[in-house]
Amino acid sequence: MEDRQLPKWSEIRELLQFRSFEMDPVQRRLARAFTIADLRTMARKTTPKAVFNYTDGAAEEEITIARCRQAYRDVEFSPAVLRDVSDPDPSTKLFGRTIDFPLVLAPTGYTRMMHNDGEKAVARVAARNNIPYTLSTVGTTTVEDLAKAVPDGNNWFQLYIAKDRSKTEGLLERVLTSGYDVLMVTVDTQVGGARVRELRDGLTIPPTLSPQTFADMALHPSWWFDKLTTPPIEFASLKGFGGNSAEVADQVFDPALTFEDIAWLRKVWPHKLLVKGIQTVKDAERVVELGCDGVGLSNHGGGSWTGRPPS
Ligand SMILES: Cc1cc2nc3c(=O)[nH]c(=O)nc-3n(C[C@H](O)[C@H](O)[C@H](O)COP(=O)(O)O)c2cc1C
Known about the structure:
By secondary structure, this protein is an alpha/beta fold. It has a single domain (58-71, 90-302), classed as Aldolase class I (TIM Barrel, Alpha-Beta Barrel). It has 15 helices and seven strands. The chain has helices at 9-15, 25-31, 36-46, 49-56, 63-74, 111-114, 118-128, 143-149, 165-177, 196-201, 211-218, 221-228, 245-252, 259-268, 281-289; strands spanning 92-94, 97-99, 133-135, 155-159, 182-186, 272-278, 294-297. The strands form two sheets. It has a five-stranded parallel sheet. A two-stranded antiparallel ribbon has the order 1-2. Helix 8 links the parallel strand 3 (133-135) and strand 4. The chain is globular. The relative contact order is 0.14. The mean pLDDT is 94. The protein binds flavin mononucleotide (FMN). The site of flavin mononucleotide (FMN) has 16 residues, from helix 4.
């Protein structure tokens, strides 16, 4: 027969320890996020579907993004055990600066649409962890405001070369004056991607919301409250371009862009220059020959067109 004993409170107490209640709702949510997938699930709950789809979706049938995810899943590491890993050091040097982890936070447009803290929040996280943050040309925080909000950040700027080069030069002057010293020019969005989720939701420029999208948005009052009580969602750094958002968007992406424009940019930008969206050795060699300092090996998360290989 098994040995039995009377239940002891001291042993039960050991098991019954609950998390203390976190008053701050953001911290409470974050404490429940153990993986990126958990954050994605939370984003789906806290933002309207169309906003979630803008962030989560990609172009056409989303084949490239599916391949990217699979490529990461397929990575295998050879397990070399019995090495002292008590003090790992993932820091590295990038463009003369030490960064604490080999990661650069990529540019995202419209970031304040997801959450009103938007670009500033992402840049603060990057600064806190000593990694670079890249502000997008089509960001919803100006070049100046971001630099002021995160003065100690390793802040980079992502450029779309506008059809009117003098407007790009004007923008670059502001970028320079605000202290950014790494420029990342994106070359794989000469035309906007055919992002089917956005077309279905009607989250286009200008918006053509479907009744379902509008009804779903109405179910997120706190998102609305944030949007209505904070500055409007717009291409913050491009106000001087003139016109409404559709007219600005039309000026920002130039389908006629060539390597000659990269040579021109190399002349007008005095600091580090990266070209984002390169995926072949030949193209990488050409931009390096033009004096660029590196490439962003990227398929835009499958967001510009689909069928591109995982980087
Ligand atoms: C919501 C969202 C907005 C984005 N906006 C921009 C942008 O304004 N400029 C840009 O160059 N890339 C933009 N991207 C692409 C990312 O910078 C990045 O290339 C992509 O997430 C994939 O990462 P990878 O390039 O490291 O493979 C955006 C991506 C997302 C998800």
